Give the backbone structure.
Amino acid sequence: MTPETIEAERVRLRPFHLDDVVDTATACADPVTRRGIAGLPDPYTEESARRWITEGAPAAWTRGGAAYAIAEPGTDRLLGGIDLSQPVPTRGQWEIGYWVAPWARRLGVATAAARALAEHAFAAGCARLELLTDEENTASQRVALAAGFRHEGVRRAADPGRGGDRKDLVAWVRLADDPPGPAVRLLPDLPDGRLSDGVVTVRRVAPGDADPLHRLHTLPEVVANRVPPVPPARESIERRCRLAESHWLAGRSADLVILDAASGTTAGGCALMYDEPATGQAMLGCSMLPEARGRGLTTRAVRLVAGWAFDIGLARLWAGTRPENVAAQRALEKIGFRREGLLRGRLPGPDGTRTDSVLFGLLAADPRG
Ligand SMILES: CC(C)(COP(=O)(O)OP(=O)(O)OC[C@H]1O[C@@H](n2cnc3c(N)ncnc32)[C@H](O)[C@@H]1OP(=O)(O)O)[C@@H](O)C(=O)NCCC(=O)NCCS
């Protein structure tokens, strides 16, 4: 790569220069930038910025990568930074990383810069660009999708972390011959962030939902449906709540909380696990807190979620219940699910046993009660 200026829609990518010292120092001392970019000097001062501009960025080019300033095309003011690092010439692969200054966020700057640099890299012979994000950095994951990067998987403990606490990283990849434009989302966001019929509302699980969801998932009758059937630790529920948006963006699952629409209190939880995107099939599970049962809220919530699932293109929803869980079977039949069979020994039961599961299915064209 050579440090030539790239003029693109909304952004200019150009080498850093000393006029960028104050803006670079301000942007890289910002807590959001520090959370997203590992290894920045602490504290980040104007001297740190000067060292980056005179030594760090030039060294990135020398190592076979690139380190561009993102600038506003009209004024040339610094908006952020974007780089290519970790070249693997035998694979035609680089890693892309970026940050955007607080005064330029949520304006499409990172997306425009990532698209422009990706196209430039592919034109220069790169075959594969990797983008590694922290599991909770959903802003960056949204940039990845908007810039055409597809979810590839989780690199376990790939981030050495700060203080010896290794962390997983999510890998997003764009290939030179991937179609231009944003990556297709298997699970788009809910319209306006929620579904409601005026009586129940469902929305994506968020970090603040840990208390009611921990209470829900430690109820004995809910634990009996878990795999394996043991109560979850509080930490695992907190993690599930923190990662719900990331799992949704990855197309793995839509983890939803069910709310009483009038009071806004939590009534239960519902999860759509997109287990077979290739065949358009997902699994639906739902549990209600004891105080919200017996009022038809489950039927309403599942009907809303099923309607949304078919609207976004799923072909089939399935659910499994324990043979003795008559309440769940009635609720599924009321919604329109049909009993399809018995899966013998499908799930791990207590003490090394196996449990049967009654299979229910709902197709897009089935009447919904
Ligand atoms: C992540 C970061 C680069 C995003 O920059 P940006 O210019 O604001 O991003 P864009 O305006 O291009 O937004 C792209 C998408 O992300 C969404 N997004 C951006 N910031 C968001 C936020 N804080 N919360 C939720 N969504 C956010 C936008 O709505 C948009 O989504 P859409 O395509 O679904 O409409 C910026 O927040 C940042 O500098 N963070 C710190 C450094 C960092 O994390 N770098 C990435 C390391 S992997």
In short: Residues 32-33, 36-37, 97-100, 105-111, 133, 137-140, 142-143, 146 surround coenzyme A (CB under 6 Å). The longest strand covers residues 78-88. The mean pLDDT is 95. The domain at 191-363 is CATH 3.40.630.30 (Aminopeptidase).
